Please model this.
Amino acid sequence: MKNAVALALAAVFLTGQAVYAAEPQQERQQTMKGVGEAMGTLAKTIKGEIEYDATAVANAFKKMNEASRNFADKFPEGSETGHETEASPKIWSDRPGFEKAVQEFEADTDSAVKAAPKDIDEFKAAFGRVAENCKTCHETYRVKKE
Model:
């Protein structure tokens, strides 16, 4: 009986993993949700809506940097549509440009993590590079759904 339960649980787990792995649109949307939350913290900080907090800033940059790793892999052929994706077809038609944009985002966020801004002035320099990278990629490789 225990073996049957274990096998059933393993089958459910493996099936769930296979479904998740087959849905890159959802995986990248979840990743971008985390990036958006991190950017929210950074944007509120830059606007002065919240007090500068070096730990919160470091955590936000770290979260963005972790998300950037292998991010381009979340856009395989065949995932251009579905799940209300906002991915632009240009991701697939200009793959080298998209991969370069992701690499720049990874480099910018890595630099921000390593800089570990201790005050608002140090933060502004790091934030500017990261924010510009986000803006450029979104303008080029994202289709805003209405």
Notes: Residues 26 and 43 are 25 Å apart (CA to CA).
